[in-house]
Structures are given as C-alpha cells and as structure tokens.
Specification:
L-arginine/glycine Amidinotransferase, Chain A; 3-stranded mixed β-sheet; 15 strands; binds arginine
Length: 287
C-alpha cells in the first residue's frame, strides 16, 4: 500500500548501455554465485535480457548497445564497463584476467560515441562500484575496485567520493548492496537510496546512516535474491520478482516497482543493474 503522505514520484528519462548476452555462460568462477559445473541456458538468458531491454524502451528510455565479444561471457554486465557523468567516461580496469579483454571494447565504444574518454590507471569495475547519489559519488571497495581507484575517480570527476567497504563476498560490487532510487535531485537534497546494512563494515554503515537518514533498509532475504541490483528512473524501479519485501517498501514510498526476472543471469552473479550502464550526457540527459 502506498502511504498517504508518500510524495508523487517523477520519472526522469535515462540513457543506458546494454550488451545482448549472446555468449553468456558460466565457464569460470570469480564470485560466489558462479558455479561452472551448473548448466546455463544462453537462449533463456537472451530472452530474459530482452524483456529488460524492451521494458526500458516502453518506459521511454534510450538504450544503446555494445557488440558482445565471443569468449567474454560476462560482457552482458555492462555496469562494469565504465562510469559516465556529464559526457565524461571513466573506463574500467577489471580485477580478474577473465574480464580484462572487455576493457578496450568499452573504451573504444565510448570514444566512438563521442564521450570524453579517460583510460584508468587503477583497478575499478565501473558503475558496479561507483554510484552517483546527488552530487557525491558512492564508491565500493573490498572485493573489486581499489581504494586508489576512488582517488582517481575523484580527480577525474572533481567530485566528493565516499568510500564504502563491502564485507560479504556475495555482495562484491556496490550495486549488489545499494541502489539509487532518485537519479536526479535538487542540489543538496537527499536522494532516495536503499541498501543492505549487513553488506557493509561498521564505519561505512555509520556513514550511510549519517548521510541518508531516510534510506530504505532492505532485509537480508531481499538482499540475498539481488533485490538491490535494480534500476530506477525516479518513479519506476525495476527489481527482481523475488524481492517481495523491497517491493512493498518501494510502494509505501510512492515508487512503482516493475518486476523483471533475470534468474539465468544471476547464475553469473549479476542482475538488473549489472546489465545496465547509465550514460549521463554532457547536457545531463534528464527531464
Ligand atoms: N560475473 C560477473 C563478475 O563477477 C558479474 C558482474 C556483475 N556486475 C555488477 N555490476 N554487479 O564480474
């Protein structure tokens, strides 16, 4: 139920980069979700992904595509391919050798599409670990992106960066443990966010409580089904159908949850947000 005093939510049109999972499989393991002995169904992954893609278009968003590379089954998780604000694209430097060949493809794509492209020196996995919350960048570390990459990203974008330490290997990227519900807010306003408190160390949790007193705290059950790996346009929040508690919390706050099942892509340890990289244009492509 939507509570009577929930604010009216306004949609902001987004622009995303996605990659059709034509070569999706689980042939190696770099996170606890990946089990190469279990079979995967590439056609099913493509069909589930297509549903997400179609939903974005139906909502009026723009979606760009990058060509999938054979031999890179994780390239579908485009959130790791960079971090883009105001037309500046900070490229990825993947932690594990299995994904390192994706980086030049993303960097070439940004260049070919007119972004001011910065090649990183530090290990970082793009929007998997960097999320824009109002004016500040929330940056995850502990498993993938390094603390040095947080300093690099602060220099590239000349913005405040808040480092957050992840402690549970199942939630190895920031976007598996925290989601931004309001992609656009008035300067200085607190953006709506949701997070899984147990995924963070004590200091990071205290920092989140201080900065986001109105955040939605998500249950372990909803976190464990990747409920936080979601994409919001400020009104519509695309989430896993298994995150039923989070779905109710979103409705209470006046958001519109849309349920999309990416169960096949979860076998690779990724969900809705992982398959979605925000392309924030030079003129802030928002309404
Ligand atoms: N198998 C991929 C990896 O371990 C999954 C990446 C998920 N991406 C994300 N943004 N959380 O790198």
């Amino acid at each position: 139920m939507m509570s009577d005093n929930a604010p009216a939510r306004i949609q902001h049109k987004r622009r995303y980069l996605m990659c059709r999972p034509e070569h999706f499989t689980v042939s190696y393991s770099i996170n606890p979700w990946m089990e190469p002995a279990n079979p995967t169904d590439t056609a099913k992954a493509v069909a589930q992904w297509q549903k997400l893609y179609d939903t974005y278009l139906e909502l009026g968003h723009e979606v760009e595509l990058i060509d999938p590379l054979p031999g890179y089954p994780d390239m579908v998780y485009t959130a790791n391919g960079g971090f883009v604000i105001d037309g500046v694209a900070y490229g990825p430097e993947f932690r594990y050798v299995e994904r390192q060949g994706e980086a030049p493809a993303f960097i070439d794509w940004f260049r070919a599409n007119g972004f001011d492209t910065r090649v990183p020196e530090e290990v970082n996995e793009g929007e998997g670990d960097f999320l824009l919350a109002g004016d500040v960048i929330l940056a995850g570390t502990g498993f993938r992106s390094t603390g040095d990459s947080h300093a690099e990203v602060a220099r590239v974008f000349d913005r405040e960066v808040v480092s957050l330490t992840l402690i549970d290997p199942r939630f190895y990227h920031l976007d598996t443990a925290l989601t931004i519900l309001d992609p656009v807010v008035e300067p200085g306003a607190e953006p709506g966010i949701a997070y899984l408190p147990h995924a963070f160390d004590d200091a990071s949790r205290a920092e989140l409580e201080r900065r986001f007193p109105n955040a939605i705290l998500v249950s372990d059950e909803d976190g464990a089904v990747f409920g936080l790996n979601s994409a919001s346009d400020g009104r519509n929040v695309i989430i896993s159908p298994r995150a039923t508690g989070f779905e109710a919390q979103l409705r209470e706050r006046g958001y519109t949850p849309i349920l999309i099942d990416l169960s096949e892509l979860l076998l690779g340890g990724g969900g809705i947000k992982c398959c979605t990289l925000e392309l924030r244009g030079a003129s802030a492509v928002t309404e």
